[in-house]
Specification:
With 148 residues, the protein is mainly alpha-helical. It contains 7 helices and no strands. The protein is rod-shaped.
Length: 148
């Protein structure tokens, strides 16, 4: 229904006694079912639920410092007994409220290979030990003997 037609529906209530409903609707090019839906206000419950959802989305978004996207937002809304589909949550967040999530980088994929450069054993040191902590004491002794 266009805005022009809504004005026409409000005009009808003023001139109800002078003109018939069908004549006025035909002149304003409004379908009768649109007129009767306007009178009954059938979408009132939907509008209230939508407004509650939008307020909850805004509150959760600011509590989490704008990090959460529409998929995570759907989970938080479920915990508050507000059930939305992913598409509806996306539409409410990104198009109506203009609340955009912080996009995190993907973790890099695993690449097979050596983690660091392996240097050659130029000093030809022997790192195998016959007893536990034997080499450690041996190297420590050599280090102290060079200081004298």
């Amino acid at each position: 229904m266009r805005r022009k037609s809504i004005k026409g529906l409000s005009i009808h209530s003023k001139y109800h006694s002078l003109f018939g409903v069908r004549w006025l609707l035909q002149r304003l090019s409004i379908y009768p079912n649109a007129y009767y839906n306007f009178l009954k206000d059938r979408k009132a419950a939907y509008k209230i639920k939508k407004q509650q959802a939008l307020e909850a989305i805004t509150k959760i978004y600011h509590e989490h410092h704008g990090v959460d996207g529409y998929r995570t937002m759907r989970i938080y809304l479920k915990r508050k007994n507000i059930y939305l589909s992913n598409l509806t949550g996306y539409k409410y967040m990104n198009h109506e409220l203009r609340l955009l999530a912080v996009v995190r980088r993907k973790k890099p994929n695993y690449k097979k290979g050596h983690a660091h450069k392996i240097f050659p054993n130029l000093v030809n040191q022997d790192f195998s030990a016959k007893k536990s902590q034997y080499q450690m004491v041996h190297r420590f002794y050599l280090f102290i003997s060079y200081e004298w």
